[in-house]
Design goal:
The chain contains 4 helices and no strands. The chain has helices at about 10-20, 40-50, 55-70, 70-85. Helix 2 (about 40-50) crosses helix 3 and helix 3 runs antiparallel to helix 4.
Amino acid sequence: TGCCSKTVCHGCDFTKQISELKQARKQTCSFCRHPSPETQAELDEIRLKRIKTNDPLAIREMGLTQRDKGNYTSAFEFCTKAADLG
C-alpha cells in the first residue's frame, strides 16, 4: 500500500520505481504521487493521520501490523472497525 493507504498493483509500483530511478527522480507514492516518507516515523505519522480520518484501509493495515507484533486483541479491534467501515 502507498502512503495514502491505497492498494497498488506490485507490477505497476515496480515499473514506476524503475522509471523514477532511471530518471533520477525522487520516489513518490504510486497512487497519490506525494514524496515517499524517508523515515519510519514519517510513515507512522501519515498512517495515524489516515486512521484518524477513519480510512478503512489504513485501519486494516494497522490491524495487520498489530497481528504481526502478536497483539491479537488490538489487531481484532482494528480489523473489526475496518470491516464495519467497509
